[in-house]
Design a protein that fits this description.
36% of the residues lie in helices and 28% in strands. The chain is of the alpha+beta class and 143 residues long. Strand 6 and strand 7 form a beta hairpin.
């Protein structure tokens, strides 16, 4: 039942279109040369290619100083004079996401399916224990 419930919940959530767009402005992000750094807001369904990254008051150049990977919400850092390994940059980016009410509702529905699955397992265990007790429960009694 839990698996069916999770399938239903994910199907419903998947069919809800991403109808909201959010923009995060000047999020602080660590620069690690030769590595990627993930942004904070990772619940979006589609990240846009309109990011702006600044460090020390300088706007960095995509393809020279960094690469923006919208598919996994991360920035890869190149070792340039504008990128200070271990330093901090600011990133502004936009992404599409499902409405907040849909995300909250899906969380509530999946919790209900989890509670329902626990109830079914408890019921089955009670029946099994009742049958075992019923078969062995009359031993030792005198008539």
């Amino acid at each position: 039942m839990l698996l069916v419930g999770l399938f239903v919940v994910s199907s419903i959530f998947g069919s809800i279109p991403a109808s909201s767009t959010s923009t995060v402005s000047n999020e602080s992000i660590s620069m690690a040369v030769g590595n990627t750094t993930t942004v904070d807001e990772t619940y979006g369904s589609a990240y846009r290619e309109n990011e702006t990254v600044t460090a020390g008051g300088t706007t960095l150049s995509e393809g020279t100083d960094y690469e923006w990977y919208p598919s996994n919400q991360s920035v890869y850092w190149y070792g340039t004079t504008n990128v200070s390994d271990g330093g901090t940059a600011s990133i502004t980016y936009s992404f599409d996401h499902k409405p907040e009410t849909a995300r909250r509702s899906i969380g509530t529905i999946s919790s209900a399916f989890s509670i329902g699955a626990v109830a079914v397992i408890t019921l089955v265990a009670s029946v099994i224990l009742g049958l075992v007790g019923g078969f062995g429960g009359s031993r030792g009694r005198r008539r």
